[in-house]
Specification:
Layout (H helix, E strand, L loop, with lengths): L10 E2 L10 E4 L35 H6 L11 H11 L6 E4 L9 H15 L5 E6 L10 H8 L3 E5 L5 H8 L7 H15 L4 E8 L2 E3 L7 E3 L3 H10 L7 E5 L6
Parallel strand pairs: 2-3, 3-4, 4-5, 5-6, 6-9
Antiparallel strand pairs: 1-2, 7-8
Length: about 250
């Protein structure tokens, strides 16, 4: 690891008019970590310490350019460090804290729950909402994650589903936790657990993506029509108004 690699931000804001200006984003992800390697995802695949831009420095991707900061952290920060960063940046007009980052925040489920509980204790249960965006595979690793998040005080969870069956999910999202439909089954269970909780639960689907199958088996891998995703979300208890559509935008070369 070279001195040229600068630690990224724990808290950040988006600088586009389309984003809610009263949302403070929180990054708790070490080394862009994720349980998936989705074909459509533009997050960096190489650690900057290994020279992802050829020099060992930081080259922002689209998400980081939008945030106006690097989101590379050498390791996941402690709960105390995260809370200090929030204290330094939060504004009186903020109405939401969104735990997102670049990768999968619930890889650090115990820390995330600690941060949520502390936020609720300090800033008030009703004054500021807390949201988590996740790939939903947390039940593969931790027991009863929906209950733990609900007990911590989480207000809203947004889950990236992106498929209607295990075969589609494995081909498109390439989970690192296993290449069998079992992984997708755990994702579905987590969605249903969240729907049954007090948390607002939303599902997201990427649409408009296709590519050559990188496995070498030939053919194309593509997302499905919106109606198929909407129908599947309905079987999970997610109504159309709680579906988030993410139009695929190619990453610039």
């Amino acid at each position: 690891m070279t001195d040229a690699i600068q630690e990224g931000s724990i808290v950040y804001r988006f600088k586009t008019p389309a984003e809610d200006a009263n949302t403070l984003y929180v990054n708790m992800i070490g080394r862009y970590g994720c349980w998936n390697d989705c074909l459509f995802c533009g997050r960096p695949r190489l650690d900057p310490a290994e020279g992802s831009d050829g020099s060992g420095g930081w080259r922002p991707n689209v998400y980081e350019e939008k945030a106006g900061t690097s989101l590379y952290l050498r390791k996941s920060p402690s709960v105390v460090t995260v809370l200090d960063a929030i204290d330094n940046e939060i504004k009186q007009e903020d109405r939401e804290i969104a735990i997102v980052g670049l990768g999968e925040p619930l890889m650090e489920l115990p820390k995330v729950c600690g941060v949520i509980g502390s936020i609720k204790g300090k800033y008030g249960v009703h004054k500021i909402g807390v949201r988590v965006d996740t790939d939903g595979l947390v039940k593969c690793v931790y027991p009863e994650p929906a209950k733990r998040l609900e007990d911590a005080g989480l207000d809203e969870v947004r889950i990236s589903v992106n498929a209607v069956n295990g075969e589609d999910y494995v081909r498109l999202c390439r989970p690192t936790l296993g290449s069998t439909p079992w992984v997708f089954g755990k994702l579905v269970d987590f969605v249903r657990d969240c729907v049954s909780s007090s948390m607002i639960t939303k599902a997201s689907f990427v649409i408009g993506f296709e590519c050559d199958d990188p496995s070498g088996r030939g053919g194309m891998i593509a997302t499905r029509p919106q109606q198929e995703y909407e129908d599947f979300a309905g079987t999970l208890g997610i109504p159309p108004e709680d579906i988030i559509w993410r139009q695929y935008v190619p990453t610039p070369d």
